[in-house]
Amino acid sequence: MAFKLREGVFTAETDYGIALLDEDGDQYWTLNPSAAVALRTLLDGGTEAEAAQRLTEEYAVDVGTAHRDVRELVGELRSAGLGEDDPGRRAHGRWPRGRGRRAGRKRR
């Protein structure tokens, strides 16, 4: 499932990563450059695995650590009320549940 920032949360590119502004809560958070790479990948419709892969390409980090970092980032954004699943958007060719062809059904 695709990830998105909830309505009322805005991003701003900075020299050191990304700033997130929660307009409703009147708070902001800053993400370092590696977290910014992961978040950009997710917001572009990428999966957590794709965000982790991107981190391994940009930084000297192993894939296991990158996966853990992305999961933690997503968990923290959700816990802070900033992020959520986006069931209405396709993430790289996969439809959210309940859409597309039913399992076991043959095409004609």
Structure description:
Residues 78-108 are annotated as: Disordered. Pfam families: PqqD. The chain is α+β, with helices and mostly antiparallel strands. It has a single domain (2-83), classed as Arc Repressor Mutant, subunit A, CATH 1.10.10. Helix content is 36%, strand content 23%. It has helices at 33-43, 48-58, 63-79, and strands spanning 2-5, 9-14, 17-22, 27-31, 83-86. Helix 1 runs antiparallel to helix 2 (48-58). Residues 91-108 have low confidence and may be disordered.
Kindly list the characteristics that best describe this protein.
disordered C terminus; PQQD; 36% helix; three-stranded antiparallel sheet; 23% strand; PqqD_sf; Arc Repressor Mutant, subunit A; 108 residues; alpha+beta
Question: How would you concisely characterize the structure shown here?
Answer:
The chain is α+β, with helices and mostly antiparallel strands and 108 residues long.
